[in-house]
Amino acid sequence: MPVPLAPYPTSPVSFAQSPANGAQGQLVCLGCRNLLLYPAGATTVCCAVCNAVTAVPPPGAEMAQLVCGGCHTLLMYIRGATSVQCSCCHTINLALEANQIAHVNCGNCRMLLMYQYGAQSVKCAICNFVTSIGVSIPFVSHV
């Protein structure tokens, strides 16, 4: 009987390792989170424990990660995806690239908040305060 792994991979790079010629690759089952081995050239893997079918990332795919907004599970996905569905709670998470997000401190509790670039305000998940995102005016020094 397989031993269940931690609820998320311990190392981001080990989520999916593409196999070399004739070798086996490995990835984490989307259903039960067990480590699955697959032969080179496979496009999907069916888990023997839970029968979930997990897609094999294309060779050389760059992976990214985010924390699920619903259950706080670490999710791994192929970089460039616009949304990621959590296999634990089924929440659909918006996947933003680094150049699409910005940071601001909460106007009440000073918690660092992350928001989508262009938003007019952001609500703090800790204290529920809504912080307005102001347009910054560059400081010009007159000498």
Description:
Residues 1-17 and 136-141 have low confidence and may be disordered. Strand 12 and strand 13 form a beta hairpin. This protein has two domains: 12-94, no CATH class; 98-132, no CATH class. It contains no helices and 13 strands. Helix content is 0%, strand content 35%. By secondary structure, it is mainly beta. The radius of gyration is 20 Å and the shape is elongated. It has a three-stranded antiparallel sheet, with no helix packed on it. It has a two-stranded antiparallel ribbon with strand order 4-5. InterPro entries: LSD1-like, Multihaem_cyt_sf, Znf_LSD1. Keywords: Nucleus. This is Zinc finger LSD1-type domain-containing protein.
Q: Please bin the fraction of helical residues.
A: under 10%
**Are there runs of 5+ residues with pLDDT below 50, and where?**
1-17, 136-141
Specify the number of helices. 0
* Number of discrete domains: 2
State the total count of DSSP E strands.
13
Compute the CA-based radius of gyration.
20 Å
Termini separation comes to: 75 Å
- State the shape: elongated
Mean pLDDT: 77
Order of helices and strands: EEEEEEEEEEEEE
SS strand fraction: 25-35%
Q: Major sheet: order of its strands?
A: 1-2-3
Name the structural class.
Answer: mainly beta
**Mind summarizing the main beta sheet?**
3 strands, antiparallel
